[in-house]
Amino acid sequence: ENNDIVLINKPSGMLSQKSEPKDISLVEYLTAYLLHSGSINYEDLNIFHPGICNRLDRNTSGIVAAGKTMNGLQKLSAHFKDRTLSKYYICIVKGEITKRQLVKGYLKKDHSSNRVTIYKQLPDDIPSDKNMPANDKNTDKSEYMPIETEYVPVVSNGRITLLKIHLITGRSHQIRAHLASLSHPLAGDYKYGDASFNQYFADKYSCKNQMLHSYEIDIPDMNIHVHTDIPASFINVLKGEQIWQPGIPEVLEALH
């Protein structure tokens, strides 16, 4: 935290922003914290409301970047928009992954179901004009968003792998859907995951949410490089699967 920005380690289960007026989200907790600490007062709220620059799914934990001032919010927002920062996540996935890989594709969101579909290539029969339906579907190429996800394995026992993810593009549900499309769904992901795999984690580790955590952020122009601790839920699983090693935090810090 400095005079303009604050980086928050959001817990799983908390909304990043309100979805309904009655909701209490991270933004409300942030505002209350800044009022309590004296960083802002109620008169300031007539001019500017502190805000966040990146949203995490409700059941994803980890770093959320927020602006305490207009200057801080504008600077952070510019870095997210221009991709002049690096965001890293950790997750636990099904199966064994043995090497670093950069995967690309396209993501299309169905807003009615709040699900996304991953395509390796842009479909050839999609028109560029929204007013020209293809295959009787009202869609166009602009709805297929290019995505890039880089991942590197940290430790594995053959059944599961702990990955460090470099999220190059930040689309909705990108990590979850992209890895599921590669047959490596996240543990605890009930939207894109494997039912029997999820049940195993629920029974053995009381895992109710996807094992995905926003672990690290690097913004060189603002001299910011921050990472969180590894969540206790991750350590519990890794110990239970007999693959926890004391040096894992140092390995995660070194991998980029």
Topology at a glance:
Elements: E1 5-10, H1 26-37, E2 51-52, E3 61-67, H2 70-82, E4 86-94, E5 101-110, E6 115-119, E7 145-156, E8 160-167, H3 174-181, H4 195-205, E9 212-219, E10 224-227, H5 232-240, H6 248-254
Parallel strand pairs: 3-9
Antiparallel strand pairs: 1-3, 2-3, 4-8, 4-9, 5-6, 5-7, 7-8, 9-10
Describe the protein:
By secondary structure, this protein is an alpha+beta fold. It folds into 2 domains: 78 residues, Pseudouridine synthase I, catalytic domain, N-terminal subdomain (Alpha-Beta Plaits, 2-Layer Sandwich), CATH 3.30.70; 166 residues, Pseudouridine synthase (2-Layer Sandwich), CATH 3.30.2350.10. 23% of the residues lie in helices and 28% in strands. The chain is built from 6 helices and 10 strands, in the order βαββαβββββααββαα. Strands 1, 2, 3, 4, 5, 6, 7, 8, 9 and 10 form a 10-stranded mixed sheet that branches. A hairpin with a 3-residue loop joins strand 7 and strand 8. It is globular, with a radius of gyration of 20 Å. About 3% of the residues have low confidence.
First-residue to last-residue Cα separation: 23 Å
CATH superfamily of the largest domain: Pseudouridine synthase
Rounded to an integer in angstroms, the radius of gyration calculated over CA atoms is: 20 Å
Average pLDDT across residues? 91
Total number of strands? 10
Helix-strand sequence = EHEEHEEEEEHHEEHH
What's the main sheet like? Answer: 10 strands, mixed
Estimate the strand proportion: 25-35%
Label the CATH architecture of the largest domain: 2-Layer Sandwich
CATH class category of the largest domain:
Alpha Beta
Overall geometry: globular
CATH fold node name of the largest domain: Pseudouridine synthase
What oligomeric state do the depicted chains represent?
single chain
Q: Could you name the ranges where pLDDT drops below 50 across 5 or more consecutive residues?
A: 130-136
Structural class category: alpha+beta
How many distinct folded domains?
2
The share of residues in helices is: 10-25%
Tally of alpha and pi helices: 6
